[in-house]
Amino acid sequence: MSSANSRPQSFWFSTLDEPVEPRAPLDGDAQFDVAIVGAGYTGLWAAYYLNQREPGFRIAVVEAEVAGFGASGRNGGWCAYYFSGIEALLADPNTRERALALQRAMFDAVDEVGRASTAAGIDCDYAKGGVLVAGTSRPELERVRAGYDEMREYGFSEDDFSWLEADAFAERARIHGVLGGIYSPHCAAIQPAKLALGLASFLEARGVAVFEQSPVRTIAKGVLTTDRGRIRADNVLRCTEGYTCRLPGLKRTILPLHSMMIATEPLPDSIWKEIGLHGRPTFADYRRTVTYGQRTADNRLAFGTRGLYYYGSGIHDDFNRGDPSFVHTRSTLLELFPALSGVEITHRWGGVLGVTRDWMPFLQFDARTGLGAAGGYSGNGVAAANLAGRTFADLVLREATERTSFPWVNHSSRKWEPEPLRWLGAQGVRRVGEWADAVEKKGRDAGLLGSIFDVFAAH
Ligand SMILES: Cc1cc2nc3c(=O)[nH]c(=O)nc-3n(C[C@H](O)[C@H](O)[C@H](O)COP(=O)(O)OP(=O)(O)OC[C@H]3O[C@@H](n4cnc5c(N)ncnc54)[C@H](O)[C@@H]3O)c2cc1C
Q: Which of 44, 72, 261 to mutate to test the pocket of ligand 1 (most atoms within 8 A of CB)?
Protein backbone atom coordinates (compact mmCIF):
# COMPACT_ATOMS: atom_id res chain seq x y z
CA MET A 1 0.00 0.00 0.00
CA SER A 2 2.86 2.37 0.79
CA SER A 3 3.45 4.82 -2.05
CA ALA A 4 6.71 6.39 -3.18
CA ASN A 5 5.46 9.77 -2.06
CA SER A 6 3.72 9.42 1.28
CA ARG A 7 2.76 13.08 1.49
CA PRO A 8 -0.85 13.73 0.62
CA GLN A 9 -1.39 16.52 -1.89
CA SER A 10 -3.77 18.56 0.31
CA PHE A 11 -3.45 22.32 0.70
CA TRP A 12 -2.98 21.66 4.42
CA PHE A 13 0.14 19.55 3.87
CA SER A 14 1.61 21.66 1.10
CA THR A 15 1.53 24.91 3.10
CA LEU A 16 3.21 23.56 6.24
CA ASP A 17 6.32 25.46 7.37
CA GLU A 18 8.43 22.31 7.24
CA PRO A 19 8.21 19.42 4.76
CA VAL A 20 7.07 16.17 6.33
CA GLU A 21 9.75 13.50 6.67
CA PRO A 22 8.29 10.02 7.15
CA ARG A 23 9.25 8.26 10.38
CA ALA A 24 10.99 4.90 10.29
CA PRO A 25 8.95 1.75 9.71
CA LEU A 26 8.52 -1.10 12.15
CA ASP A 27 11.60 -3.27 11.69
CA GLY A 28 11.50 -6.59 13.52
CA ASP A 29 9.18 -7.91 16.20
CA ALA A 30 8.09 -5.98 19.27
CA GLN A 31 5.78 -6.18 22.26
CA PHE A 32 3.39 -3.43 23.43
CA ASP A 33 0.35 -3.12 25.70
CA VAL A 34 -1.70 -1.44 22.98
CA ALA A 35 -1.10 -1.46 19.23
CA ILE A 36 -3.09 0.99 17.12
CA VAL A 37 -3.43 0.61 13.35
CA GLY A 38 -3.76 3.97 11.55
CA ALA A 39 -2.38 7.40 12.47
CA GLY A 40 -5.45 9.47 11.67
CA TYR A 41 -7.37 11.30 14.38
CA THR A 42 -9.03 8.13 15.70
CA GLY A 43 -5.78 6.27 16.26
CA LEU A 44 -3.88 9.34 17.46
CA TRP A 45 -6.54 10.47 19.94
CA ALA A 46 -6.84 6.90 21.26
CA ALA A 47 -3.08 6.89 21.86
CA TYR A 48 -3.25 10.39 23.35
CA TYR A 49 -5.90 9.60 25.99
CA LEU A 50 -4.44 6.19 26.84
CA ASN A 51 -1.08 7.83 27.35
CA GLN A 52 -2.60 10.62 29.48
CA ARG A 53 -4.43 8.16 31.70
CA GLU A 54 -1.80 5.38 31.87
CA PRO A 55 1.60 6.97 31.19
CA GLY A 56 3.23 3.61 31.90
CA PHE A 57 1.38 1.87 29.07
CA ARG A 58 3.55 0.85 26.12
CA ILE A 59 1.65 2.09 23.06
CA ALA A 60 2.49 1.75 19.37
CA VAL A 61 0.79 3.49 16.45
CA VAL A 62 1.42 1.75 13.13
CA GLU A 63 0.71 3.77 9.98
CA ALA A 64 0.90 2.66 6.33
CA GLU A 65 2.12 6.06 5.10
CA VAL A 66 2.61 9.08 7.37
CA ALA A 67 0.47 10.47 10.19
CA GLY A 68 -2.46 12.37 8.71
CA PHE A 69 -2.11 10.69 5.32
CA GLY A 70 -5.81 9.76 5.24
CA ALA A 71 -8.88 11.93 5.70
CA SER A 72 -7.38 13.49 8.84
CA GLY A 73 -4.81 15.43 6.80
CA ARG A 74 -7.13 16.33 3.94
CA ASN A 75 -10.53 17.26 5.38
CA GLY A 76 -12.53 20.49 5.40
CA GLY A 77 -11.42 21.34 8.92
CA TRP A 78 -14.91 21.47 10.38
CA CYS A 79 -14.50 20.35 13.95
CA ALA A 80 -18.26 20.14 14.31
CA TYR A 81 -21.00 18.89 16.63
CA TYR A 82 -22.68 16.71 14.02
CA PHE A 83 -22.70 12.95 14.52
CA SER A 84 -23.71 10.95 11.46
CA GLY A 85 -26.95 9.05 12.02
CA ILE A 86 -27.95 11.00 15.17
CA GLU A 87 -31.39 11.75 13.67
CA ALA A 88 -32.33 8.05 13.70
CA LEU A 89 -30.96 7.57 17.22
CA LEU A 90 -32.93 10.56 18.49
CA ALA A 91 -36.11 9.48 16.72
CA ASP A 92 -36.06 6.02 18.32
CA PRO A 93 -37.49 6.09 21.88
CA ASN A 94 -35.19 3.16 22.77
CA THR A 95 -32.04 5.14 22.02
CA ARG A 96 -33.24 8.74 22.51
CA GLU A 97 -31.90 9.33 25.99
CA ARG A 98 -28.44 7.99 25.16
CA ALA A 99 -28.47 9.86 21.85
CA LEU A 100 -29.19 13.14 23.66
CA ALA A 101 -26.21 12.48 25.92
CA LEU A 102 -24.13 11.58 22.85
CA GLN A 103 -25.12 14.85 21.17
CA ARG A 104 -24.07 16.82 24.25
CA ALA A 105 -20.80 14.90 24.31
CA MET A 106 -20.28 15.93 20.68
CA PHE A 107 -20.78 19.61 21.63
CA ASP A 108 -18.11 19.07 24.26
CA ALA A 109 -15.82 17.22 21.82
CA VAL A 110 -15.60 20.41 19.72
CA ASP A 111 -14.23 22.23 22.79
CA GLU A 112 -12.11 19.28 23.88
CA VAL A 113 -10.20 19.31 20.57
CA GLY A 114 -9.34 22.95 21.32
CA ARG A 115 -8.48 22.29 24.99
CA ALA A 116 -6.38 19.17 24.36
CA SER A 117 -4.52 20.56 21.37
CA THR A 118 -3.69 23.74 23.32
CA ALA A 119 -2.55 21.66 26.30
CA ALA A 120 -0.32 19.64 23.96
CA GLY A 121 1.15 22.85 22.49
CA ILE A 122 -0.34 22.16 19.04
CA ASP A 123 -1.24 25.22 16.99
CA CYS A 124 -3.85 23.96 14.52
CA ASP A 125 -5.41 27.38 13.76
CA TYR A 126 -8.40 26.41 15.93
CA ALA A 127 -11.07 29.14 15.70
CA LYS A 128 -14.48 28.48 17.21
CA GLY A 129 -16.55 30.63 14.87
CA GLY A 130 -19.54 28.27 14.72
CA VAL A 131 -21.26 26.91 11.63
CA LEU A 132 -23.80 28.42 9.23
CA VAL A 133 -26.10 26.20 7.17
CA ALA A 134 -28.10 28.01 4.49
CA GLY A 135 -31.31 27.24 2.68
CA THR A 136 -31.08 28.74 -0.80
CA SER A 137 -34.40 27.57 -2.24
CA ARG A 138 -37.80 27.16 -0.64
CA PRO A 139 -37.67 23.34 -0.36
CA GLU A 140 -34.10 23.49 0.99
CA LEU A 141 -35.17 26.12 3.50
CA GLU A 142 -38.07 23.94 4.64
CA ARG A 143 -35.72 21.02 5.20
CA VAL A 144 -33.23 23.15 7.15
CA ARG A 145 -36.07 24.55 9.23
CA ALA A 146 -37.46 21.06 9.92
CA GLY A 147 -34.02 19.98 11.18
CA TYR A 148 -33.83 23.06 13.39
CA ASP A 149 -37.36 22.53 14.81
CA GLU A 150 -36.54 18.91 15.54
CA MET A 151 -33.42 19.79 17.53
CA ARG A 152 -35.36 22.42 19.51
CA GLU A 153 -38.12 19.87 20.22
CA TYR A 154 -35.48 17.51 21.63
CA GLY A 155 -34.63 20.25 24.12
CA PHE A 156 -31.56 21.85 22.58
CA SER A 157 -31.61 25.57 23.22
CA GLU A 158 -31.19 28.77 21.27
CA ASP A 159 -27.60 28.66 22.54
CA ASP A 160 -27.08 25.40 20.61
CA PHE A 161 -28.99 26.22 17.42
CA SER A 162 -30.43 29.57 16.39
CA TRP A 163 -32.59 30.40 13.40
CA LEU A 164 -31.48 33.23 11.14
CA GLU A 165 -33.84 34.95 8.71
CA ALA A 166 -32.34 35.83 5.32
CA ASP A 167 -31.01 39.28 6.34
CA ALA A 168 -29.48 38.08 9.59
CA PHE A 169 -27.86 35.16 7.77
CA ALA A 170 -26.48 37.42 5.05
CA GLU A 171 -24.89 39.64 7.69
CA ARG A 172 -22.72 36.65 8.63
CA ALA A 173 -22.29 35.04 5.20
CA ARG A 174 -23.63 36.51 1.98
CA ILE A 175 -24.37 33.18 0.34
CA HIS A 176 -26.08 33.86 -2.97
CA GLY A 177 -29.86 33.47 -2.76
CA VAL A 178 -29.92 32.63 0.94
CA LEU A 179 -33.46 32.57 2.32
CA GLY A 180 -32.51 31.76 5.91
CA GLY A 181 -30.71 29.08 7.86
CA ILE A 182 -29.21 27.78 11.08
CA TYR A 183 -26.30 29.03 13.11
CA SER A 184 -24.72 26.80 15.73
CA PRO A 185 -21.74 27.86 17.85
CA HIS A 186 -20.66 24.21 18.18
CA CYS A 187 -18.05 24.17 15.44
CA ALA A 188 -14.44 25.26 15.12
CA ALA A 189 -12.42 25.70 11.94
CA ILE A 190 -9.04 23.98 12.14
CA GLN A 191 -6.01 23.29 9.95
CA PRO A 192 -6.44 19.50 9.77
CA ALA A 193 -2.88 18.42 8.96
CA LYS A 194 -1.39 20.56 11.73
CA LEU A 195 -3.61 18.72 14.22
CA ALA A 196 -2.69 15.23 12.98
CA LEU A 197 1.02 15.96 12.70
CA GLY A 198 1.07 17.82 16.01
CA LEU A 199 -0.56 14.89 17.77
CA ALA A 200 1.93 12.41 16.28
CA SER A 201 4.90 14.53 17.40
CA PHE A 202 3.42 15.09 20.85
CA LEU A 203 2.83 11.36 21.30
CA GLU A 204 6.32 10.49 20.20
CA ALA A 205 7.78 13.00 22.66
CA ARG A 206 5.72 11.28 25.37
CA GLY A 207 7.22 7.88 24.57
CA VAL A 208 4.55 6.47 22.26
CA ALA A 209 6.13 4.57 19.36
CA VAL A 210 4.95 5.86 15.96
CA PHE A 211 5.91 3.59 13.06
CA GLU A 212 5.24 5.01 9.60
CA GLN A 213 5.52 3.47 6.10
CA SER A 214 4.33 0.24 7.71
CA PRO A 215 1.16 -1.14 6.13
CA VAL A 216 -0.43 -3.66 8.46
CA ARG A 217 -1.30 -6.81 6.52
CA THR A 218 -3.21 -8.80 9.14
CA ILE A 219 -4.80 -8.16 12.50
CA ALA A 220 -5.65 -10.95 14.94
CA LYS A 221 -6.10 -11.39 18.68
CA GLY A 222 -2.93 -10.13 20.33
CA VAL A 223 -0.93 -9.60 17.14
CA LEU A 224 -0.59 -7.52 13.99
CA THR A 225 1.78 -8.18 11.12
CA THR A 226 3.58 -5.91 8.69
CA ASP A 227 6.02 -6.86 5.93
CA ARG A 228 9.01 -6.22 8.17
CA GLY A 229 7.84 -7.30 11.59
CA ARG A 230 5.01 -8.08 13.92
CA ILE A 231 3.72 -6.52 17.10
CA ARG A 232 2.29 -8.54 19.94
CA ALA A 233 -0.09 -6.54 22.14
CA ASP A 234 -2.92 -7.30 24.57
CA ASN A 235 -5.08 -4.73 22.83
CA VAL A 236 -5.16 -4.05 19.09
CA LEU A 237 -7.28 -1.16 17.78
CA ARG A 238 -8.11 -0.82 14.09
CA CYS A 239 -8.54 2.84 13.07
CA THR A 240 -8.31 2.59 9.29
CA GLU A 241 -11.59 4.28 8.17
CA GLY A 242 -11.91 4.53 4.36
CA TYR A 243 -8.93 2.21 3.86
CA THR A 244 -10.45 -0.63 5.91
CA CYS A 245 -11.61 -2.40 2.74
CA ARG A 246 -7.96 -3.21 1.94
CA LEU A 247 -7.62 -5.47 4.97
CA PRO A 248 -8.40 -9.16 4.54
CA GLY A 249 -12.04 -10.07 5.14
CA LEU A 250 -13.18 -6.44 5.53
CA LYS A 251 -13.90 -5.50 1.92
CA ARG A 252 -17.61 -4.85 2.49
CA THR A 253 -17.46 -3.31 5.98
CA ILE A 254 -16.85 0.32 5.07
CA LEU A 255 -17.46 1.96 1.72
CA PRO A 256 -14.67 4.35 0.68
CA LEU A 257 -16.35 7.49 -0.63
CA HIS A 258 -14.23 10.29 -2.03
CA SER A 259 -14.68 13.95 -1.27
CA MET A 260 -13.03 16.72 -3.28
CA MET A 261 -11.62 20.01 -2.11
CA ILE A 262 -10.19 23.21 -3.54
CA ALA A 263 -8.54 26.25 -1.95
CA THR A 264 -8.41 29.75 -3.35
CA GLU A 265 -5.53 32.16 -3.29
CA PRO A 266 -5.54 34.44 -0.18
CA LEU A 267 -8.47 36.81 -0.71
CA PRO A 268 -8.31 40.60 -0.33
CA ASP A 269 -10.37 42.59 2.19
CA SER A 270 -12.64 43.82 -0.61
CA ILE A 271 -13.86 40.26 -1.18
CA TRP A 272 -14.28 39.52 2.52
CA LYS A 273 -16.38 42.72 2.81
CA GLU A 274 -18.60 41.31 0.12
CA ILE A 275 -18.95 37.73 1.39
CA GLY A 276 -18.65 38.10 5.18
CA LEU A 277 -17.48 35.09 7.24
CA HIS A 278 -15.98 37.28 9.95
CA GLY A 279 -14.76 35.20 12.89
CA ARG A 280 -14.20 32.22 10.57
CA PRO A 281 -17.56 30.40 10.80
CA THR A 282 -17.68 27.29 8.64
CA PHE A 283 -20.49 27.25 6.08
CA ALA A 284 -22.60 25.04 3.83
CA ASP A 285 -25.84 25.09 1.95
CA TYR A 286 -28.31 22.27 2.43
CA ARG A 287 -28.10 20.48 -0.89
CA ARG A 288 -28.23 16.71 -0.54
CA THR A 289 -24.94 16.14 -2.31
CA VAL A 290 -23.12 18.06 0.47
CA THR A 291 -20.99 21.22 0.49
CA TYR A 292 -18.62 22.44 3.21
CA GLY A 293 -16.31 25.43 3.44
CA GLN A 294 -14.11 27.37 5.78
CA ARG A 295 -12.21 30.65 5.78
CA THR A 296 -8.65 29.60 6.50
CA ALA A 297 -6.32 31.32 8.95
CA ASP A 298 -4.48 32.86 5.98
CA ASN A 299 -7.72 34.19 4.47
CA ARG A 300 -8.42 31.75 1.69
CA LEU A 301 -11.57 29.80 1.13
CA ALA A 302 -11.16 26.04 1.40
CA PHE A 303 -14.23 24.38 -0.02
CA GLY A 304 -15.38 20.84 -0.69
CA THR A 305 -18.12 18.76 -2.26
CA ARG A 306 -18.92 15.06 -1.93
CA GLY A 307 -17.33 13.03 -4.74
CA LEU A 308 -17.22 9.57 -6.17
CA TYR A 309 -17.29 5.93 -5.28
CA TYR A 310 -15.00 3.85 -7.52
CA TYR A 311 -15.82 0.34 -8.63
CA GLY A 312 -14.56 -2.44 -6.34
CA SER A 313 -13.95 0.04 -3.47
CA GLY A 314 -11.06 1.58 -5.40
CA ILE A 315 -9.21 4.33 -3.56
CA HIS A 316 -7.62 7.33 -5.26
CA ASP A 317 -5.15 9.28 -3.17
CA ASP A 318 -3.82 11.62 -5.84
CA PHE A 319 -5.93 13.47 -8.37
CA ASN A 320 -5.08 15.17 -11.59
CA ARG A 321 -5.56 18.96 -11.59
CA GLY A 322 -7.88 18.52 -14.58
CA ASP A 323 -10.17 16.03 -12.83
CA PRO A 324 -13.78 17.01 -13.70
CA SER A 325 -14.72 16.78 -10.02
CA PHE A 326 -12.70 19.93 -9.34
CA VAL A 327 -14.60 21.82 -12.05
CA HIS A 328 -17.80 20.82 -10.27
CA THR A 329 -16.42 21.85 -6.87
CA ARG A 330 -15.34 25.25 -8.21
CA SER A 331 -18.64 25.93 -9.96
CA THR A 332 -20.50 25.02 -6.77
CA LEU A 333 -18.37 27.49 -4.80
CA LEU A 334 -19.14 30.19 -7.38
CA GLU A 335 -22.86 29.42 -7.09
CA LEU A 336 -22.60 30.26 -3.39
CA PHE A 337 -20.25 33.25 -3.80
CA PRO A 338 -20.37 34.68 -7.36
CA ALA A 339 -17.89 37.37 -6.18
CA LEU A 340 -15.17 34.71 -6.44
CA SER A 341 -15.45 34.32 -10.21
CA GLY A 342 -12.05 35.90 -10.94
CA VAL A 343 -10.23 34.31 -8.05
CA GLU A 344 -7.47 31.77 -8.63
CA ILE A 345 -7.82 28.21 -7.34
CA THR A 346 -4.36 27.38 -6.05
CA HIS A 347 -4.91 23.89 -4.59
CA ARG A 348 -6.99 20.87 -5.52
CA TRP A 349 -7.09 17.56 -3.67
CA GLY A 350 -9.34 14.70 -2.67
CA GLY A 351 -9.56 12.16 0.09
CA VAL A 352 -11.47 9.14 1.17
CA LEU A 353 -14.03 8.96 3.93
CA GLY A 354 -15.65 5.84 5.36
CA VAL A 355 -19.35 5.03 5.18
CA THR A 356 -21.10 2.08 6.81
CA ARG A 357 -24.20 0.46 5.31
CA ASP A 358 -26.53 2.35 7.72
CA TRP A 359 -24.39 5.54 7.73
CA MET A 360 -23.86 5.05 11.48
CA PRO A 361 -20.36 5.25 12.98
CA PHE A 362 -19.23 2.37 15.18
CA LEU A 363 -16.83 1.87 18.04
CA GLN A 364 -16.33 -1.77 18.92
CA PHE A 365 -14.23 -3.32 21.62
CA ASP A 366 -14.18 -6.91 22.83
CA ALA A 367 -12.78 -7.03 26.35
CA ARG A 368 -12.06 -10.78 26.00
CA THR A 369 -9.92 -10.55 22.89
CA GLY A 370 -8.68 -6.97 23.29
CA LEU A 371 -9.64 -6.27 19.67
CA GLY A 372 -11.25 -2.95 18.83
CA ALA A 373 -12.24 -0.90 15.79
CA ALA A 374 -13.82 2.48 15.16
CA GLY A 375 -14.89 4.53 12.18
CA GLY A 376 -17.65 4.97 9.63
CA TYR A 377 -18.00 8.69 10.42
CA SER A 378 -19.43 9.34 6.95
CA GLY A 379 -17.45 12.55 6.53
CA ASN A 380 -18.12 13.87 10.03
CA GLY A 381 -15.19 12.52 11.99
CA VAL A 382 -13.07 15.45 13.14
CA ALA A 383 -14.77 15.93 16.50
CA ALA A 384 -16.23 12.40 16.66
CA ALA A 385 -12.76 10.84 16.42
CA ASN A 386 -11.76 12.74 19.55
CA LEU A 387 -14.75 11.22 21.34
CA ALA A 388 -13.72 7.85 19.93
CA GLY A 389 -10.21 8.27 21.36
CA ARG A 390 -11.55 8.93 24.85
CA THR A 391 -14.03 6.06 24.59
CA PHE A 392 -11.30 3.66 23.45
CA ALA A 393 -9.28 4.69 26.50
CA ASP A 394 -12.25 3.83 28.75
CA LEU A 395 -12.75 0.47 27.08
CA VAL A 396 -9.10 -0.56 26.99
CA LEU A 397 -8.83 0.34 30.68
CA ARG A 398 -12.03 -1.71 31.27
CA GLU A 399 -13.85 1.25 32.80
CA ALA A 400 -17.60 1.72 32.33
CA THR A 401 -18.35 5.42 31.77
CA GLU A 402 -21.17 7.47 30.28
CA ARG A 403 -19.21 7.41 27.01
CA THR A 404 -19.12 3.62 26.88
CA SER A 405 -22.95 3.60 27.05
CA PHE A 406 -23.42 5.69 23.91
CA PRO A 407 -25.38 3.93 21.17
CA TRP A 408 -22.50 3.65 18.68
CA VAL A 409 -20.46 1.56 21.14
CA ASN A 410 -20.52 -2.01 19.87
CA HIS A 411 -22.97 -1.03 17.14
CA SER A 412 -22.47 -3.04 13.99
CA SER A 413 -23.90 -2.30 10.56
CA ARG A 414 -24.64 -4.92 7.98
CA LYS A 415 -22.18 -5.41 5.14
CA TRP A 416 -22.31 -3.53 1.85
CA GLU A 417 -23.55 -5.47 -1.17
CA PRO A 418 -21.04 -7.32 -3.36
CA GLU A 419 -20.09 -5.78 -6.71
CA PRO A 420 -21.51 -4.82 -9.12
CA LEU A 421 -24.47 -4.02 -6.85
CA ARG A 422 -22.39 -1.80 -4.59
CA TRP A 423 -21.22 0.34 -7.50
CA LEU A 424 -24.63 0.45 -9.15
CA GLY A 425 -26.27 1.46 -5.88
CA ALA A 426 -23.69 4.17 -5.14
CA GLN A 427 -23.99 5.61 -8.67
CA GLY A 428 -27.77 5.50 -8.53
CA VAL A 429 -28.01 7.24 -5.17
CA ARG A 430 -25.56 9.91 -6.29
CA ARG A 431 -27.50 10.62 -9.48
CA VAL A 432 -30.79 10.76 -7.58
CA GLY A 433 -29.19 13.24 -5.14
CA GLU A 434 -27.99 15.42 -8.02
CA TRP A 435 -31.41 15.39 -9.66
CA ALA A 436 -33.14 16.16 -6.36
CA ASP A 437 -30.75 19.08 -5.78
CA ALA A 438 -31.31 20.45 -9.30
CA VAL A 439 -35.10 20.32 -8.85
CA GLU A 440 -34.91 21.99 -5.42
CA LYS A 441 -32.55 24.73 -6.59
CA LYS A 442 -35.34 25.71 -9.02
CA GLY A 443 -37.64 26.07 -6.02
CA ARG A 444 -39.66 22.92 -6.71
CA ASP A 445 -40.17 19.98 -4.35
CA ALA A 446 -37.89 17.03 -5.08
CA GLY A 447 -40.73 14.71 -4.01
CA LEU A 448 -39.99 11.04 -4.51
CA LEU A 449 -36.42 11.72 -5.68
CA GLY A 450 -35.64 13.44 -2.40
CA SER A 451 -37.27 10.69 -0.36
CA ILE A 452 -35.35 7.97 -2.21
CA PHE A 453 -32.07 9.76 -1.59
CA ASP A 454 -32.88 10.33 2.07
CA VAL A 455 -33.65 6.65 2.62
CA PHE A 456 -30.40 5.44 1.05
CA ALA A 457 -27.97 8.21 1.96
CA ALA A 458 -28.97 9.97 5.13
CA HIS A 459 -26.30 12.51 5.96
C1 LIG B 1 -11.99 15.60 1.70
C2 LIG B 1 -12.58 15.30 3.04
C3 LIG B 1 -13.20 16.33 3.76
C4 LIG B 1 -13.71 16.06 5.03
N5 LIG B 1 -14.18 17.11 5.78
C6 LIG B 1 -14.57 16.91 7.06
C7 LIG B 1 -14.91 17.99 7.88
O8 LIG B 1 -14.81 19.15 7.50
N9 LIG B 1 -15.34 17.72 9.15
C10 LIG B 1 -15.43 16.44 9.63
O11 LIG B 1 -15.85 16.25 10.77
N12 LIG B 1 -15.03 15.40 8.87
C13 LIG B 1 -14.57 15.61 7.63
N14 LIG B 1 -14.13 14.57 6.87
C15 LIG B 1 -14.04 13.25 7.51
C16 LIG B 1 -12.91 13.19 8.52
O17 LIG B 1 -11.74 13.74 7.96
C18 LIG B 1 -12.70 11.75 8.95
O19 LIG B 1 -13.93 11.25 9.44
C20 LIG B 1 -11.64 11.58 10.01
O21 LIG B 1 -10.46 12.24 9.66
C22 LIG B 1 -11.41 10.09 10.20
O23 LIG B 1 -10.23 9.90 10.95
P24 LIG B 1 -9.64 8.42 11.04
O25 LIG B 1 -8.43 8.50 11.86
O26 LIG B 1 -10.71 7.50 11.51
O27 LIG B 1 -9.33 8.02 9.54
P28 LIG B 1 -8.15 8.54 8.56
O29 LIG B 1 -7.79 9.92 8.84
O30 LIG B 1 -8.57 8.18 7.18
O31 LIG B 1 -6.91 7.67 9.01
C32 LIG B 1 -6.79 6.31 8.73
C33 LIG B 1 -5.30 6.04 8.66
O34 LIG B 1 -5.09 4.65 8.66
C35 LIG B 1 -4.01 4.36 7.78
N36 LIG B 1 -4.17 2.97 7.38
C37 LIG B 1 -5.17 2.43 6.67
N38 LIG B 1 -4.97 1.11 6.50
C39 LIG B 1 -3.82 0.82 7.13
C40 LIG B 1 -3.07 -0.37 7.32
N41 LIG B 1 -3.50 -1.53 6.82
N42 LIG B 1 -1.93 -0.33 8.01
C43 LIG B 1 -1.49 0.84 8.55
N44 LIG B 1 -2.16 2.01 8.40
C45 LIG B 1 -3.31 2.00 7.70
C46 LIG B 1 -4.22 5.35 6.64
O47 LIG B 1 -3.04 5.55 5.88
C48 LIG B 1 -4.66 6.58 7.39
O49 LIG B 1 -3.58 7.43 7.72
C50 LIG B 1 -13.64 14.76 5.58
C51 LIG B 1 -13.05 13.73 4.86
C52 LIG B 1 -12.52 14.00 3.59
C53 LIG B 1 -11.86 12.89 2.83
A: 72
Number of domains in the chain: 1
Q: Which residues pair with 263 in a beta bridge?
A: 302, 347
- Whether 449 is covered by a domain: the verdict is yes
**Helix or strand (DSSP H, E) at 261:** strand 255-264
Q: Could you tell me the pTM of the whole model?
A: 0.97
Domain extent for 444? 417-459
Structural domain contains residue 432: yes
Query: Could you tell me if residue 456 is inside a domain?
Result: yes
Q: Which residues contact 191 (CB under 8 A, 6 or more apart)?
A: 12, 77, 124, 125, 296, 297
Pocket residues for ligand 1 (CB within 6 Å)?
37-43, 62-65, 69-72, 74-78, 80, 215-216, 239-243, 247, 259, 261, 292, 304, 351-353, 375, 377, 379-382, 385
Tell me the sheet residues that pair with 127.
Answer: 189
pLDDT per position as a tens digit, 277-336: 999 999 999 998 889 999 999 999 999 998 799 999 999 998 988 899 999 999 999 999
